[in-house]
Amino acid sequence: MSDEVTVEYVKGLKNDKNVLLIDVREPSELEKTGTIPGSINIPLATLEQTLQSSSNEDFQNLYKRDKPSLDTALVFSCHMGRRSQMALNAAKKLGYMNAKHYPGGWAGWAKETNTN
Fold first, then answer.
1. Which of 86, 75, 79 minimizes the C-alpha distance to 107?
2. 113 band by pLDDT with thresholds 50, 70 and 90
3. pTM assigned to the model
4. Catalytic residue numbers, as ranges
């Protein structure tokens, strides 16, 4: 089973509360480009600590979503796929076995959806 998802799959996540789409870029990058609809931002530098140490209450306050359990479906994205692959590897080390990444990242999203 592949650890990658397609842009078509990501397009379907906007209102899917069963899958958590996490953009691991820095907030300054998101300000310049925008975000994939339905995603939350957890920068790669803080991802492991956030997934491992934050309480459900803190996670909900920050991201308006429940903190993912180890069986929650996660999809990571970044700009072009390198950091999302690193995020996927980190999540799997923490026990998140239902995690994937979108290798197209923001660049692929913008191209496929004509977002500038």
1. 79
2. confident
3. 0.94
4. 78
